Amino acid sequence: MGDESMKNTEKLSLNSKIKADKFISLPRLPPKKPSSKQTITPEDEAMIQNSVLYKDANVLVIDKPYGLPTKGGPNAKKDLESLLSALRFEYEEPPRLVHQLDGETTGVMLLARTRKAAVELATQFKKRLIKKTYWTLLTQRPSPNEGRITGDLTESDEDEDEKRRSVRGKVDNEKHSVTEYKEVDHSADIGSFVVMHPITAGKDQLRKHSAQILNAPILGDFKYGQKTHANQQLKSRFGDDVQLHLHSRSISFMKQGHPQETRLSFETVRADLPKHMLSTWEKLGLDTCPRAAVEEEQ
């Protein structure tokens, strides 16, 4: 039957009429590739459990390590989302993500332990009650050494004048991304220890503001700052595999169950510098915890 049917085949169009005694042959689709599931080892579970800095009935705060993306991508071998089940502890359900950090960014990250807590934290983020502080090493000193950056985030290296637009004062347009920054220490030859507070939450906001507006890229940021002389100079000093020097130092959030937004109702959790940044601080002779940086977290 197969040979005979092949002799009488014809292509059909959308308007073709098919008789009751005819057969329709559909092309065979290639087999669907099985999804590659990440293998979570006991070592992975121990690592993420040991990263917990703070735990109460509603939230967890972890110290996210370098190289662990929040959500998996095509090249990610491990991601935080796949490890959340290891952070259930006494609860049946794993904690929920309420914000994200880049894979190359280290430091404090807030997780909601219940659905109700996730809704509450989302409200705090929306009202800008949650304060985040980042420590970073810029490849050169910013000018001025402290201020408030507002401006549109761009993806390319074009329109240099537009990218460097910096306005200090009240933000009138929500489309603008806003970052407050202050230099707290600097090395004699190159490198500036800068504390940053993102007021808004744009994609790669701190990296773009540093490279595009301050013209002082973060050390190890070869996505937005690879063409600058300072970054190339530091790259030659620390090697081609220098890692991004952007650390989520602290996060302050309002404890749930407190009806009033008072200083006592807020919890602040801090994470120490990761090893690769601590090593750079020591090489450049920078203070690893200057008073000015600590004051910026208050």
Outline type: globular
As residue ranges, the low-confidence spans are 1-6, 31-35, 156-174
Class by SSE composition:
alpha+beta
Give the rounded overall mean pLDDT: 81
Distance between the termini: 83 Å
Largest sheet: 10 strands, mixed
Total number of helical segments? 9
In percent terms, what proportion of residues is strand? 15-25%
* Estimated helix fraction: 10-25%
* Annotation, overall tally of beta strands: 10
**H/E order of the elements?**
HHEEHEEHEEHEEHHEEHH
Supply Rg. 26 Å
Topology:
Elements: H1 2-7, H2 42-50, E1 52-55, E2 59-64, H3 80-83, E3 96-97, E4 106-112, H4 115-126, E5 131-138, E6 146-151, H5 160-163, E7 177-186, E8 192-198, H6 205-213, H7 229-238, E9 246-254, E10 266-270, H8 275-284, H9 291-295
Parallel strand pairs: 4-9
Antiparallel strand pairs: 1-2, 2-4, 3-4, 5-8, 5-9, 6-7, 7-8, 9-10
Give a verbal description of the structure.
- It is a single chain.
- The protein is an alpha+beta fold and 298 residues long.
- The protein contains 9 helices and 10 strands.
- Strands 1, 2, 3, 4, 5, 6, 7, 8, 9 and 10 form a 10-stranded mixed beta sheet that branches.
- The protein is globular and about 90 Å long.
- The model is unreliable at 1-6, 31-35 and 156-174 (pLDDT under 50).
